[in-house]
Amino acid sequence: QVQLVESGGGLVQPGGSLRLSCSASGGYFSEYAMNWYRQAPGKEREWVATHTSGDFTTGPDSLKGRFTTSRDDANNMGYLQISNIRMEDTAVYFCQLRRGEIIHWGRGTQVTVSS
Questions:
Q1: What pLDDT shows up at residue 28?
Q2: CA–CA separation, 106 vs 22, rounded Å?
Q3: Residue pair 50/38 in contact by the 8 Å Cβ criterion
Q4: Which of 51, 45, 49, 69 is nearest to 59 (CA)?
Q5: 19 Cβ contact list (under 8 Å, min separation 6)
């Protein structure tokens, strides 16, 4: 059973940067696409970024340039770098692994942007 644990969230000031981590265990990490989502209070979960097993990356146009993914398949780790962070980036950030219809979610890490 694949288990995902996100970390790296916390309180950050506007304009700062943050790197979130996703640690995977119990499966073949390299075979999965890694997706990041976020959910702000009172809002639906929103797709943030994708990093495929073939090293292709993509994300919503509104977030490109500030959100960058990377992955370390040898160590079953994925990362989401957020730059020039904004108040509206406040949310719980989730890591997801997906291979076809097989989907695994982490429990999320809270990011709070405040001055």
A1: 87
A2: 8
A3: no
A4: 49
A5: 8, 79, 80, 81, 82
